[in-house]
C-alpha cells in the first residue's frame, strides 16, 4: 500500500491517505515552544519541558489510537452534516486528503461536501506560540453557510500529575474568556506565573468591521469539556458540533478546554482565512493580576499585543517566510548530489532535520516517549551533538557546557538532566560507565568543527555546584580518569550499571517484578563485570585526547590544554587498553561483548545464546583496533555473516530465549525486540563507519540502505513507522513481526547515520587541521558533488572516480595538495573549490 511520496523540491513528505499504519508525525518549534503533530492533527504542545509545562493534553495508548490534538470541525448549517478536515477525530470519509510534513510546519488539507479546508500549523521563530492558519474554500455552485469549531484540551501543566492526581485536579481548573480569547489559568492564582491562551482571528474581525461584510465571525465558545462533548461522548461527535451551537461554558474544575465557534458565509469559489493562535505566556511574579489584588484576573497587558500581532495574516506570512529561510540556512551547511536519491534526500533534508529534532528534545517527547519519563540523557545528548554540531555550533557549545556542568567530581556523570533546570536527575543517578567518555567524543567533534579552543578553558562547575569550577579541559581529563579508576580483573573497564546498552545490566540481579533495571541497587561491588565496548570507546577517546593535546604542542593559542597531559600519555593509554582488548576481548572471530559478574564471557562462541553482539565490533573498529592486522576485517565479516538481515543488522545472535538474572533487562525482551536482537538502528552506522574505514564502500552503503527510511518507504506496510525519519528499532529476525519499526524520531540513529554517511561514506569530515575529504563510495558511483560550510568557508567539492579503490588526489583551487585534508584558506577567503579524484 502506498501512503504518500517525497516532494524533495518542497522538502516535504506528502501523505495521501489519513489511515497510515501508525500516526506519522512532525515536530513544530525548535527553540522553547514545541509541538508534536500527526498526519491527522493529533498531538500536543509544551513549553521547554514536556513534563512540567505541558500545554495541551494527550492520552498515550488511547483508543482509538492518536485521539486528542489540534482539532477543527466543519458543519454545514443547512444540512447539519459535520466532518473534520484532518479526518480525525470524526473519521468522516473525505473526498480528498493530504498532509504535507515540512521543515517545522505541517499542512493538512481535506475536502468534503464541496468544502475544501487546509490548515497550516507552525511555531514562529522567537515566539512562544503556535499558529493554525485555516483556509476554507467553497467549491460549490451555491453559497455555503458553515460553522467552524476549534477544539483543544488543556493540560494542567505537570503532565504526570495531570494523568494521575484526579482527586485534586478535578477541582483546580480555571479559565477566563475575554474578547474571544480563551485563557487557561489553572494554578495561576497560587504559585504559577504562566498561563496559556487560545485566540481566533474571527473574534477580532467582528469588532473591526460591520458584521454584514464578514465572511467569518465568532458565534460562541466553550471551555468546559463536558459542555462541548456532552456526557459520555468523545471527540468524534461533540454535542455542540452536532447541534451547531456553542454552550459558552466557563470551566470551573473538571477539564478545561478551548473551543471557538466561528460562522462562515462563503459565496461560490470564495475562500475565508481564519487564524488561531495557541500560546504560552509568563508574567512577572509581582504583576500577575489586573487590577492587582483580589479579583484574580490575569494581567493581559503584555500578552495582548502578542496575540493581536499573530492574528494578522501579514504577520503569519512573514513568520512562515522567516521559518523557511532559517531552514534554508541550516540545510545549506551541507548539501550533496550523488547518484543515490535516498542518500541525497536523507542528507539534504530529512536526516539533517531529524538531527535537529533529537538535539532539541533528546528522548523526551515523541509518540513513543511520553514526555513524563526521561529528561536529557547525558550519553544521548552528547551523541546527538555529533550530528548537529555543524548546523548550529553556538548551540552545541552551550549544550556541551550544560552537560559538563552536571558531571560529578569523580568524572562520572548523571545519566540524565532536566531541561528546565539543567540539573542532574537524582532519581536516575549515575554509574553508567560509558557516559563520561561521550563527553570527550562530543567535545572533540565540537573542536574539530569550530577550532574554538577557548571552550577548553571555560570554567565549568561539577554537579551544578558553584565554587567547583574547573576548565572544561579538566572535565575531559576526569572523564578519562573515571575509566582508569574502574578497571576490572582483565584490565578492561568495569561496566557499572550498564554501558551504551542500557539493558546489559551485569550487576543488577533483579528478581522483583517491575523494578527498574537501570536504577535498582546493584548487587555486590561491581568489581568484576567488564565491558569490551567501553574499552573500545576508551581507545577512541584516548586517541582524540591525544589529538587535542597534539594541537597544543603545535603552538595553537589555547592555554587550557595545559590542564591536559601530553599527547604521548594519551597514546600510551590507548595502546594499553588496546592490548587488554587484544588479550582478553577478542573471541577468535569477533570482539567479545563483556565479562559478567562471575567473570563469565558474554558474546562469545562459547555461549549458548548471545554469542555475538554488534556493539563491540562497531566500537572497536571505529577505535582503529585491528585495522592493520585483519581483526577488524574479521570482526565485520562476522557481523555480516551472523547478524545482517534484509532489514538491517541485528544487535546480537542467537537471541536470548529466557530471562537470565545475571544479564538483566536485555533478556527481559521477547526475542527480536529492542536490545534482545532487534535491529537496533543506532548501532548500524557503526558498522557502516567500520566498513568505510576498511574501504568497503559497497558494504557500507548496502548496510545503510537496509535501514534507510527513504528506501523502506516502499515497504511501509511492513515498516509501519514514518518513511522520512529513522526509528530506534526494527524487529529482528527472531520476532514474528520482522521488519516492523518502533520508536521513531528520537534516537541516536539520527546523529550516527548522518555522521556515517556524510563523514565516512562521502568522507567529508572536520579535522583539527582542515576539512578532510576521504570518501569510501561504491565502485559503481562515478562520483558526487557536495557543498560544505566549514569554519565560515564554503567548500565546493567535486569528487570523480578515476579508478578502483579509495585513494584520493586533491586539487584545491587548482593546486594539487598532498594527503586528504584541505588546509584552511587564508583569512578572508569565503569559498574554496576542491576537486577530488578517487582511485588513482
Ligand atoms: C536507548 C537510549 C540510549 C541507549 C540505547 C541502548 O536508545 O536512549 O541511551 O544507549 O537505548 O540501550
Ligand atoms: C529501556 C530500553 C532502553 C532504554 C532504557 C532507558 O531499558 O530498552 O532502550 O535505553 O529503557 O531507560
Return Rg in Å: 28 Å
Low-confidence stretches: 205-213
Fraction of residues in helices?
25-40%
The quaternary organization reads as single chain
Distance between the termini: 46 Å
Short note summarizing the structure:
This protein is an alpha+beta fold and 840 residues long.
Question: Overview of this structure, please?
Answer:
- By secondary structure, this protein is an alpha+beta fold.
- It contains 22 helices and 42 strands.
- The chain has a 10-stranded antiparallel beta sheet with strand order 1-2-9-10-11-12-19-16-15-14. Strands 6, 7, 8, 13, 17 and 18 form a 6-stranded antiparallel beta sheet that branches.
- β1 and β2 (12-15) form a beta hairpin.
- α18 runs parallel beside α22.
- The longest helix has 22 residues, at 532-553.
- The chain is globular.
- The model is unreliable at 205-213 (pLDDT under 50).
- Bound molecules: alpha-D-glucopyranose (2 copies).
Write the SSE topology.
Blueprint: E1 4-7, E2 12-15, E3 25-28, E4 33-38, E5 43-47, E6 54-56, E7 71-76, E8 82-83, E9 96-101, E10 105-112, E11 115-122, E12 129-138, E13 144-157, H1 159-162, H2 166-172, E14 175-178, E15 181-184, E16 194-200, H3 201-208, E17 216-224, H4 225-229, H5 239-243, E18 256-266, E19 271-282, H6 303-310, H7 313-331, E20 334-337, H8 341-361, E21 376-377, H9 378-388, H10 393-405, E22 416-417, H11 435-450, H12 454-457, E23 459-462, E24 465-471, H13 472-484, E25 530-531, H14 532-553, H15 567-584, E26 594-595, E27 601-602, E28 612-613, H16 614-622, H17 631-642, E29 644-645, E30 648-649, E31 652-653, E32 679-680, H18 684-693, H19 697-707, H20 709-712, H21 716-719, E33 727-730, E34 741-744, H22 749-761, E35 764-767, E36 770-773, E37 783-790, E38 793-801, E39 808-812, E40 815-817, E41 821-823, E42 831-838
Parallel strand pairs: 38-42
Antiparallel strand pairs: 1-2, 2-9, 3-4, 4-5, 6-13, 7-8, 7-13, 9-10, 10-11, 11-12, 12-19, 13-18, 14-15, 15-16, 16-19, 17-18, 20-37, 21-22, 23-24, 25-26, 26-27, 28-31, 29-30, 32-33, 33-34, 35-36, 36-41, 37-38, 39-40, 39-42
The structure holds alpha-D-glucopyranose (2 copies).
Amino acid at each position: 500500500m502506498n501512503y504518500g511520496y517525497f516532494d524533495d523540491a518542497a522538502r516535504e513528505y506528502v501523505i495521501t491517505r489519513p489511515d497510515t499504519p501508525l500516526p506519522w508525525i512532525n515536530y513544530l518549534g525548535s527553540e522553547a515552544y514545541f509541538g508534536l503533530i500527526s498526519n491527522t492533527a493529533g498531538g500536543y504542545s509544551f513549553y521547554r519541558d514536556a513534563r512540567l509545562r505541558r500545554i495541551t493534553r494527550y492520552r498515550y495508548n488511547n483508543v482509538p489510537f492518536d485521539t486528542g490534538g489540534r482539532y477543527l470541525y466543519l458543519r454545514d448549517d443547512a444540512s447539519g452534516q459535520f466532518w473534520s478536515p484532518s479526518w480525525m477525530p470524526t473519521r468522516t470519509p473525505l473526498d480528498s486528503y493530504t498532509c504535507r510534513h515540512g521543515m517545522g510546519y505541517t499542512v493538512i488539507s481535506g475536502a468534503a461536501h464541496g468544502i475544501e479546508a487546509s490548515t497550516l500549523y507552525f511555531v514562529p521563530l522567537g515566539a512562544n506560540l503556535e499558529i493554525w492558519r485555516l483556509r476554507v474554500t467553497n467549491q460549490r455552485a451555491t453559497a455555503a453557510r458553515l460553522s467552524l469549531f476549534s477544539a483543544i484540551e488543556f493540560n494542567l501543566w505537570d503532565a504526570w500529575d495531570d494523568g494521575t492526581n484526579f482527586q485534586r485536579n478535578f477541582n483546580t481548573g480555571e479559565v477566563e474568556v475575554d474578547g474571544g480569547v480563551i485563557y487557561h489559568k489553572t494554578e495561576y492564582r497560587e504559585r504559577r506565573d504562566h498561563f496559556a491562551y487560545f485566540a481566533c482571528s474571527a473574534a477580532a474581525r467582528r469588532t473591526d468591521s460591520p458584521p454584514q461584510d464578514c465572511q467569518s465571525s465568532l458565534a460562541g465558545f466553550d471551555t468546559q469539556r463536558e459542555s462541548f462533548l456532552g456526557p459520555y461522548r468523545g471527540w468524534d461527535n461533540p454535542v455542540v458540533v452536532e447541534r451547531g451551537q456553542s454552550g459558552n461554558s466557563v470551566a470551573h474544575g473538571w477539564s478545561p478546554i478551548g473551543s471557538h465557534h466561528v460562522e462562515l458565509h462563503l459565496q461560490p469559489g470564495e475562500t475565508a482565512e481564519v487564524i488561531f493562535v495557541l500560546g504560552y505566556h509568563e508574567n512577572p511574579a509581582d504583576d500577575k493580576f489586573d487590577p492587582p489584588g483580589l479579583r484574580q484576573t490575569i494581567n493581559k497587558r503584555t500578552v495582548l499585543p502578542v496575540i493581536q500581532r499573530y492574528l494578522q495574516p501579514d504577520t503569519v506570512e512573514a513568520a512562515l517566510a522567516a521559518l523557511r529561510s532559517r531552514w534554508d540556512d541550516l540545510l545549506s551547511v551541507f548539501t550533496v548530489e550523488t547518484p543515490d536519491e535516498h542518500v541525497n534526500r536523507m542528507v539534504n533534508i530529512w536526516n539533517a532535520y531529524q538531527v535537529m529534532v533529537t538535539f532539541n528534545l533528546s528522548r523526551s517527547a515523541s509518540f513513543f516517549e511520553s514526555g513524563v519519563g526521561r529528561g536529557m540523557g547525558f550519553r544521548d545528548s552528547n551523541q546527538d551533538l555529533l550530528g548537529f554540531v555543524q548546523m548550529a555550533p553556538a548551540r552545541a557549545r552551550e549544550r556541551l557546557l550544560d552537560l559538563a556542568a552536571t558531571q560529578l567530581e569523580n568524572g562520572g556523570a548523571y545519566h540524565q538532566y532536566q531541561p528546565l533546570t539543567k540539573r542532574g536527575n537524582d532519581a536516575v543517578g549515575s554509574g553508567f560507565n560509558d557516559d563520561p567518555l561521550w563527553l570527550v567524543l562530543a567535545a572533540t567533534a565540537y573542536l574539530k568543527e569550530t577550532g574554538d579552543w577557548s571552550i577548553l578553558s571555560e570554567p565549568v562547575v561539577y554537579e551544578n555546584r558553584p565554587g567547583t569550577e574547573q576548565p572544561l579541559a579538566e572535565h575531559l581529563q576526569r572523564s578519562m580518569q573515571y575509566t582508569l579508576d574502574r578497571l576490572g580483573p582483565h584490565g578492561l573497564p568495569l561496566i557499572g550499571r550498564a554501558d551504551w546498552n542500557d539493558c546489559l545490566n551485569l550487576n543488577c540481579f533483579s528478581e522483583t517484578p517491575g523494578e527498574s533495571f537501570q536504577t535498582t541497587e546493584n548487587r555486590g561491588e561491581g568489581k568484576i563485570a567488564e565491558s569490551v565496548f567501553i574499552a573500545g570507546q576508551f581507545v577512541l577517546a584516548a586517541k582524540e585526547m591525544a589529538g587535542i593535546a597534539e594541537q597544543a604542542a603545535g603552538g595553537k593559542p589555547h592555554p587550557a590544554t595545559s590542564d591536559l597531559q601530553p599527547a604521548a600519555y594519551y597514546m600510551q593509554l590507548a595502546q594499553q587498553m588496546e592490548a587488554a582488548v587484544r588479550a582478553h576481548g577478542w573471541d577468535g572471530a569477533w570482539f567479545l561483548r563483556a565479562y559478567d559478574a562471575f567473570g563469565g564471557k558474554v558474546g562469545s562462541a562459547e555461549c549458548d545464546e548471545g554469542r555475538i553482539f554488534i556493539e563491540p565490533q562497531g566500537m572497536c573498529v571505529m577505535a582503529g583496533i585491528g585495522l592493520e592486522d585483519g581483526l577488524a576485517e574479521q570482526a565485520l565479516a562476522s557481523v555480516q555473516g551472523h547478524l545482517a538481515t534484509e532489514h538491517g543488522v541485528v544487535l546480537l545472535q542467537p537471541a536470548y530465549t529466557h530471562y537470565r538474572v545475571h544479564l538483566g533487562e536485555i533478556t527481559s525482551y521477547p526475542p527480536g525486540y529492542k536490545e534482545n536482537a532487534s535491529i537496533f538502528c543506532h548501532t548500524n552506522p557503526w558498522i557502516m563507519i567500520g566498513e568505510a574505514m576498511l574501504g568497503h564502500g559497497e558494504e557500507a552503503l548496502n548496510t545503510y540502505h537496509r535501514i534507510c527510511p527513504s528506501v523502506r518507504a516502499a515497504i511501509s506496510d511492513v515498516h509501519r513507522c514514518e518513511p522520512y525519519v529513522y526509528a530506534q528499532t526494527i524487529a529482528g529476525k527472531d520476532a514474528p513481526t520482522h521488519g516492523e519499526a518502533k520508536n521513531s524520531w528520537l534516537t541516536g540513529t539520527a546523529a550516527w547515520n548522518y555522521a556515517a554517511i556524510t563523514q565516512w561514506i562521502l568522507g567529508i569530515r572536520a579535522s583539527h587541521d582542515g576539512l578532510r575529504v576521504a570518501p569510501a563510495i561504491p565502485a559503481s558511483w562515478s562520483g558526487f558533488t557536495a557543498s560544505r560550510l566549514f569554519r565560515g568557508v564554503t567548500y565546493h567539492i567535486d569528487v570523480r572516480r578515476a579508478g578502483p579503490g579509495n585513494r584520493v588526489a586533491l586539487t584545491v583551487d587548482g593546486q594539487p595538495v598532498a594527503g586528504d585534508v584541505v588546509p584552511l584558506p587564508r583569512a578572508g577567503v569565503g569559498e574554496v573549490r576542491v576537486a577530488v579524484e578517487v582511485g588513482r
